[in-house]
């Protein structure tokens, strides 16, 4: 792609005076991108702020129509939007075409789900007191700063921008340094659907400029709300800036998803779900299955089931992670587990499909993994799976379940989990004890139904995307109280003023 990806600031954005390169992890330089300056950030904020009165005053029905038109464009086989997004995603990242196509093909469902609940989510409602009526309305914050990660770029960019826009906010979108072109195309899709260009501005920020320019974005008094999807490390920095300037935030951060196999779990069926949940997109999903908790008496059955499923998978290969540094970090976590006694449970396949280069990793299943190993606590964000054994010999089943739940909760993260058991009522009861935002009974941990609130507990973030809860997190309430009867004068002498 011999292009320079520009910022999108109003009707006419000046030609870039400086650029930075986007580099594919294995293929090298992809294209150049406008390197935003402090002046560009100021222009983006000013443009979105000036557009706020008109966009906030646009009837909800019209805002909904724009989002539905964008969803239609995305799914219209006569249009090129979907193919452009897929092509850009694959060019900029190590994501496979299948992963990019699957995300792109599902994004419209999230858009339609938001539109479907918008009337109920944003409707005013009344509260009657003893002598007055209070009307509560949901109002947009104003200018919202949005930042979305690269690893599920279509869905993450959609919810970061469409949710605040639908609620009546204008948006300044700071792209990921990894996927600026994909996110640029997304903004152009919204413009093509009828979104006023000033209501959504897009700025690209080079890695070395990010600390200063992100601080400028968050601290500006015209920016009233922040949403961020990314790592817990960076999220904590953004949250600190937002706290300093008293800005509300919605954040989805890292995860360490656990999958619990109860004593009555269908392990043969669960095995394929475990492998898919662990290795989709080379494990580069915040909801990836990182740890499986299994009773000791079922450990050998689990290992055999995982080996059988993996042996039948015909596309084994080393997959590139998004940076060489990330791959190096994951190798260190795996080596630490092996040094502390964990076994490489598909070692023969790893030997046959050795890592192709410094940035690529072959999937790894390790077990048993215990608390002495970094893999037990650290989010790998790579193609690793840790098996954690729960002793069950001679123990009451209730104690085994207590131990399993305690270890599943023994993490700073709380985004997604899964519980497997043939007795679904009991599995659901166990799910209710897991400290995280979503628990899926007899399903994969990477799951995000469009109609269902999505977000984390603990260090996995706060606030919610999706559905009614998601829309309401991008609004603030106003209460107007009207007395039932006109008031008379107060007896000031009866008061201690």
What this model shows, in words?
The chain has 497 residues and is α/β, with parallel strands linked by helices. It has two domains: 4-253 and 456-480, Aldehyde Dehydrogenase, Chain A, domain 1; 257-441, Aldehyde Dehydrogenase, Chain A, domain 2 (3-Layer(aba) Sandwich). 40% of the residues lie in helices and 21% in strands. The protein contains 16 helices and 21 strands. It has helices at 38-56, 60-75, 81-92, 97-122, 153-166, 180-192, 210-219, 232-244, 267-279, 299-311, 324-339, 347-352, 374-377, 397-408, 424-431, 467-472, and strands at 4-5, 19-24, 28-34, 125-128, 132-140, 143-147, 170-174, 200-203, 223-229, 249-252, 257-261, 289-295, 319-320, 343-344, 360-361, 364-367, 384-390, 416-420, 438-441, 461-462, 475-483. The strands form five sheets. A seven-stranded mixed β-sheet has the order 14-16-17-12-11-18-19, with helices on both faces. Strands 8-7-6-9-10-20 form a six-stranded mixed β-sheet, with helices on both faces. Strands 1-3-2 form a three-stranded mixed β-sheet. Strand 11, helix 9 and strand 12 form a beta-alpha-beta unit. The radius of gyration is 25 Å and the shape is globular. It comes from Vanrija albida. Pfam families: Aldedh (PF00171). This is Aldehyde dehydrogenase domain-containing protein. Keywords: Oxidoreductase. Residues 17-480 form the Aldehyde dehydrogenase domain.
């Amino acid at each position: 792609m011999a292009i320079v990806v520009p910022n999108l600031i109003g009707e006419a954005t000046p030609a870039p005076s400086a650029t930075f390169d986007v580099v594919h992890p294995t293929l090298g330089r992809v294209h150049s991108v406008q390197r935003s300056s402090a002046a560009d950030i100021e222009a983006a904020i000013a443009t979105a702020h000036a557009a706020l009165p008109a966009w906030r005053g646009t009837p909800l029905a019209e805002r909904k129509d724009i989002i539905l038109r964008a969803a239609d464009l995305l799914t219209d086989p006569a249009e090129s939007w979907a193919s452009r997004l897929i092509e850009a995603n694959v060019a900029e990242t190590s994501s496979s075409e299948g992963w990019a196509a699957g995300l792109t093909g599902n994004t419209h469902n999230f858009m339609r789900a938001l539109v479907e609940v918008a009337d109920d989510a944003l409707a005013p409602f009344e509260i009657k007191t003893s002598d007055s009526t209070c009307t509560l309305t949901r109002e947009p914050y104003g200018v919202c700063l949005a930042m979305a990660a690269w690893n599920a770029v279509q869905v993450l960019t959609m919810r970061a921008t469409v949710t605040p826009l639908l609620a009546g906010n204008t948006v300044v979108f700071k792209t990921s340094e990894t996927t600026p072109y994909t996110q640029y195309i997304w903004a152009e899709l919204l413009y093509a659907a009828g979104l006023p260009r000033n209501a959504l501005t897009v700025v690209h920020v080079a890695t070395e400029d990010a600390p200063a320019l992100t601080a400028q974005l968050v601290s500006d008094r015209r920016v009233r709300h922040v949403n961020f999807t990314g790592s817990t490390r960076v999220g904590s920095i953004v949250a600190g800036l937002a706290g300093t300037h008293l800005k509300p935030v919605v954040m989805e951060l890292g995860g360490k998803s656990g999958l619990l196999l109860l004593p009555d779990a269908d392990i043969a069926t669960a095995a394929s779900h475990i492998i898919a949940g662990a290795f989709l997109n080379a494990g580069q999903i915040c909801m990836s299955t990182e740890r499986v908790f299994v009773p000791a008496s079922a450990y050998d059955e689990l290992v055999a089931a995982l080996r059988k499923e993996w042996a039948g998978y015909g596309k084994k290969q080393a997959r590139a992670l998004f940076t060489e540094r990330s791959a190096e970090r994951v190798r260190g976590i795996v080596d630490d587990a092996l040094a502390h006694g964990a076994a490489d449970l598909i070692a023969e396949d790893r030997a046959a499909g050795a890592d192709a280069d410094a940035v690529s990793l072959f999937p790894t299943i390790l077990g048993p993994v215990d608390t002495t190993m970094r893999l037990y606590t650290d989010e790998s964000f790579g193609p690793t799976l840790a098996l954690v054994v729960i002793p069950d010999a001679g123990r009451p089943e209730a104690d085994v379940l207590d131990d399993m739940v305690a270890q599943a909760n023994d993490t700073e993260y709380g985004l997604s989990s899964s519980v497997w058991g043939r007795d679904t009522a009991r599995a659901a009861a166990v799910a209710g004890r897991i400290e995280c935002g979503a628990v899926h009974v007899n399903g994969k941990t990477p799951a995000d139904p469009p109609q269902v609130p999505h977000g984390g507990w603990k260090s996995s973030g706060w606030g919610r995307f999706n559905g009614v809860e998601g829309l309401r997190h991008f609004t603030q309430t106003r209460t107007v109280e009207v007395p039932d009867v006109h008031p008379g004068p107060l007896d000031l002498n009866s008061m201690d003023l």
